[in-house]
UniProtKB/TrEMBL annotation:
Protein task: Catalyzes the attachment of glutamate to tRNA(Glu) in a two-step reaction: glutamate is first activated by ATP to form Glu-AMP and then transferred to the acceptor end of tRNA(Glu).
Motif ('KMSKS' region): 239-243
Catalytic activity: tRNA(Glu) + L-glutamate + ATP = L-glutamyl-tRNA(Glu) + AMP + diphosphate
Occurrences of domain Glutamyl/glutaminyl-tRNA synthetase class Ib catalytic (ranges): 5-306
Protein name as catalogued: Glutamate--tRNA ligase
CDD domains found in the cross-reference section: GluRS_core (cd00808)
One Pfam family cited in the UniProt record for this chain: Anticodon_2
NCBIfam families in UniProt: gltX_bact
GO molecular function, one term: tRNA binding
Family assignment from sequence similarity: Belongs to the class-I aminoacyl-tRNA synthetase family. Glutamate--tRNA ligase type 1 subfamily.
Recorded GO CC terms: cytosol
Motif ('HIGH' region): 11-21
The EC number(s) this enzyme carries: 6.1.1.17
Length: 469
């Protein structure tokens, strides 16, 4: 096998990028990128009734959000139909496939009889050994000549050796009577032509692998390394579905999870590297291997996802984090922030990102930047602005006006004021929070004062001190 690793992600464009598909794409991306190989994208759009351009666009959007870049152009399976038919006809010419003229009624009658006798309903066509001179001038399908006797072994990096008796395989259709290829043929031809060395996909495809191996063997093609990964289950241990909540990658983007946190969480969902939970992309690429994938289904845990996302937000580069935050607002179709607000956001990012698990939580902490005067306190913050508190703000204002606007100076001024008035800074923090942000939960008062600057801070404190509502 070539030393160059080539993996692929091959979704069907029938909807959004499912979270399970996103993990499959991630595993393929990590495996290829960690070995200097190629990661390819193929859209399996042969089912024309169910495929649509909007779904393809949603898949591409989901991958772009997750940062899963692929090499070369997106490959359309449908557009390669002539090549698939060419291979079927090569197999026919080599005696590895045959023309089958059986009608649907004849096949169904065979199956009914087999059921009645308690025999296998797998279809072995009576035409498989028929002489070409006996072929009628009727529509036909091309079927692969399934091997007889013996066992097929699928060597799988996750599941181990999987043995399937040849008596469990039917004479699978390769080309329908209208000349169109079936999915099972198309997948093998595409993987071969694309030079795919490792097929990493959900274990719901394991049963397909045996049927696809018939095509590899008939064509004398090298079989790729298979790794069939267990599916993702919900917290209740059942297959992940709508009842468990969001299923699409785009939904998680709109809920405000950072892409790096999502990648980290999905990588840990069914794969492990010792006890490491939190890691970077560089570490994931270096560590990821097929041996670390477990055989049991992984359970999706939103709390774990949020915990990891909080760690990624806290450790992110401020400029990159701000860029992703702005993209989140754009994805949510919020009104764009003005340049002055973006500048303030940039100045505040270091204090905003601590203890925020999602972008909405970060934006909640940024309310002191996003809000404009006059500030209207919410219900909790209003309780901190009674007449006594307003009096404290009024008395504090001249001291702040004379302070140089640095952290040391502001801490000294407020501490001195508290001591002179027989109180503690903690008693003043609530009213200052409410005055500056209108919220009860915010970054530290000093962070807000420094980010807002002297003029804006004093104006907000003055508004609150003089408001009699």
């Amino acid at each position: 096998m070539s030393a160059d690793v080539v993996t692929r992600f091959a979704p069907s464009p029938t909807g959004y990028l499912h979270i399970g598909g996103a993990r499959t794409a991630l595993f393929n991306w990590l495996y290829a990128r960690g070995r200097g190989g190629k990661f390819l994208l193929r859209i399996e759009d042969t089912d024309r009734a169910r495929s649509n351009p909007e779904a393809t666009a949603a898949i591409l959007h989901g991958m772009a959000w997750l940062g899963l870049d692929y090499d070369g152009d997106v490959i359309s399976q449908f557009e390669r139909a002539d090549r698939h038919a060419e291979v079927a006809n090569e197999m026919l010419a080599a005696g590895k496939a045959f023309k089958c003229f059986a009608t649907q009624d004849e096949i169904e009658a065979f199956r009914e009889a087999a059921r009645a006798e308690g025999k296998s309903t797998l279809y072995r066509s009576p035409w498989r050994d028929a002489d070409a001179s006996t072929h009628p001038d009727l529509p036909y399908v091309i079927r692969v000549r399934a091997p007889e006797g013996g066992t097929m072994v699928i060597r799988d990096e996750v599941q181990g050796d999987v043995k399937i008796g040849h008596d469990q395989l039917d004479d699978m259709i390769l080309l329908r009577s209208d000349g169109t290829p079936v999915y099972m043929l198309a997948v093998v031809v595409d993987d071969h032509d694309m030079g795919v060395t490792h097929v990493i996909r959900g274990d719901d495809h394991l049963s397909n692998a045996a049927r696809q191996m018939m095509v590899y063997e008939a064509m004398g093609w090298e079989v790729p390394v298979f790794a069939h990964i267990p599916l993702i289950h919900g917290p209740d241990g059942k297959k992940l579905s709508k009842r468990h909540g969001a299923l699409g990658a785009q939904e998680y983007q709109l809920m405000g999870y950072p892409a790096a946190g999502m990648r980290n969480y999905l990588a840990r969902l069914g794969w492990s590297h010792g006890d490491d939970e939190f890691f970077s992309d560089a570490q994931a690429k270096e560590w990821f291997d097929l041996g670390g994938i477990g055989k049991s289904p992984a359970r999706f845990d939103t709390k774990k996802l949020e915990h990891l996302c909080g760690q990624h937000i806290a450790s992110a580069d401020n400029a990159a984090l701000q860029q992703e935050l702005l993209e989140f607002l754009s994805a949510r179709a919020d009104e764009p922030l003005t340049d002055p607000k973006i500048l303030l956001l940039s100045a505040a990012m270091a204090c905003l990102k601590e203890r925020a698990k999602t972008f909405p939580e970060l934006l909640e902490k940024a309310e002191f930047i996003l809000a404009d005067r006059p500030i209207f306190p919410d219900q909790k913050a209003s309780k901190a602005l009674d007449s006594v508190s307003r009096g404290i703000l009024h008395a504090l204002t001249p001291h702040l006006q004379n302070a140089s606007w640095t952290l040391d100076a502001l801490e000294t001024v407020t501490a001195d004021f508290a001591e002179a008035n027989g109180t503690k800074f903690g008693k003043m923090a609530g009213p200052l929070r409410a005055a500056l942000s209108g919220r009860a939960v915010t970054p530290s008062v000093f962070d807000m004062l420094l980010v807002l600057g002297k003029d804006e801070s004093l104006a907000r404190i003055s508004d609150a001190a003089n408001h009699n509502g």
